[in-house]
Amino acid sequence: MPQLTKAKEVQSKIQTVKTIIEPFRIKSVEPIYFNTVQERKEILEKACFNPFLIHANDVLIDLLTDSGTSAMSSQQWAGIMQGDESYAGSPSFYHFEETVQRITGMPFIIPTHQGRASEKILFSILGGKGKYFLSNTLFDTTRANIEYTGAEGIDLICDEGKHPTIPAPFKGNINTKALEKKIAELGAENIPLCIITITNNSGGGQPVSMNNIVETKKICQKNNIPLFLDACRFAENAYFIKLREEGYAEVPVSEIVKELFSYADGCTMSAKKDAFANIGGFLAFHDEKLAQQSRNLLIITEGFPTYGGLAGRDLEAIAIGLNEIMDEHYLQYRIRSIEYLTHKLIAAGVPVMQPAGGHAVYIDAKGFLPHIPVSQYPGQALVGAIYVEGGIRSVEIGSLMFGKYDSTGNLIPAPLELVRLAIPRRVYTQSHIDYVAEVIIEVFQNRNSINGLEITEESPMLRHFTAKLKPVNSD
Fold it and tell me: How many whole angstroms separate alpha carbon 73 and alpha carbon 319?
């Protein structure tokens, strides 16, 4: 109950604040191409009801992902021009390295071309059959890279995180009691590391509390298990701690970030999220031996250790973006923008993840489409309906993305059936967001006309990227 009360207090404060003002001016624009409902029906059918297969020019508002889709600042574009493209020892790398070291407090920094490349290197070294990686919730590429090695990823989300429409301030937390139990059950020697995703993307973009990270660290230390952070949205998580966790209201975000990383033995990051970059990522370590192993694999798969598959200009853009993301005026705007859309949908009765997450609004597809069984992928059906109605591209985070099959071929559904509306950073204005709300509310009012889907073609891993579907009972 204290957590619920705190969440309501936060929501109440937000509702009394004045109009959201973007803390930037727009200097360059690109066109949106408009199309009709009938045209979008044909486009969706041609794309086999998979938003990943729709051409970007056929999308009006693209909320498929916030990864690599942000608008870079004038300072980042200036850095692009100053980027040094030396194969080895580029000054741009040393600027990047110094920035990541200062923010994370970790001495060994390895650039990669994006987050999943970091994951591929890390889990190739630590994974393998009989190994287990414990987490609050693993995202799709993280889990895939773990499973590709023969290891198993296990999610241990807190109880509050299992109930989308019931507010709680830190629904991204790992269940520490379940963590201790699972370590005892599996054996600490079989667990190469525990990884906390901040914010918890698959769990509705919900934050993790500092206290939860501290408690997790204690458990990991007691069992000699390294603790890593999936730090894609570290600044957004830090701002939630400032807003919601006792004792942090007056602490600068930069100091909260420093404390967050102080409990970690290492981290992976996609710089395509909280660094505003269009490409890039990194691994960071305290362990020199693990860093050296990673560099050896990096050279085989990504490139020399001072560029890691990136151009020098990208390293410059990331370094600048990592500093810009901790601007509290920007973070206030970012979090309030997500809350703004969330509250508009709640007011219309649309079932959404509460409270609002940091980078996206998550619709509860089960609650939105109760007439469609999980085996007919209600989240994917809703994604299609939103696209047809308003040209808005979103993504299913449910049983198409995370579902498995049992030994008889029956679907083992995901814990949650969500549709994510991921808001790119510094890209859309409030009028765009108002339009998104209007479209979703229109779809909600006509929800009984939406039909389920079935898979006609799928790959063995990360099937949601390329799967083909059709309406149930269609020829």
Answer: 12
Q: Which amino acid is at 189?
A: E
Give the residue carrying structure tokens 């408690």. 215
User: Could you write out the DSSP letters of every residue in 427-462?
Assistant: T--HHHHHHHHHHHHHHHHTGGG---EEEEE--SSS
Where are the domains positioned within the chain? 2-62+327-471, 74-324
Half-sphere exposure of 416 (CA within 13 A, CB side): 26
Q: How many residues does the chain have?
A: 475
* Strand (E) or helix (H) holding 281: strand 281-285
3-state secondary structure of 456: strand
Q: Which CATH number fits domain 74-324: 3.40.50.2300, 3.40.50.300, 3.40.640.10, 3.20.20.70?
A: 3.40.640.10
Give the Cα separation of 267 and 118 in Å (integer): 9
104: its two tokens: 């994370």
Render pLDDT for 282-296 as a digit per residue (tens, 0 to 9): 999 999 999 999 999
Say how far apart CA 296 and CA 359 lie, in whole Å: 34
Q: Crossing angle of helices 176-186/210-222, nearest 10°? A: 20
| Dihedral of alpha carbons 401, 301, 261, 251, sign | negative
Closest CA to 155 of 129, 128, 131, 182: 182
Alpha carbon distance 222, 243 (integer Å): 30
Give the DSSP letter of residue 43. Answer: H
Write the pLDDT tens digit of every residue in 363-382: 999 999 999 999 999 999 99
Cα–Cα distance measured from residue 431 to residue 437, given in angstroms and rounded to the nearest whole number: 10
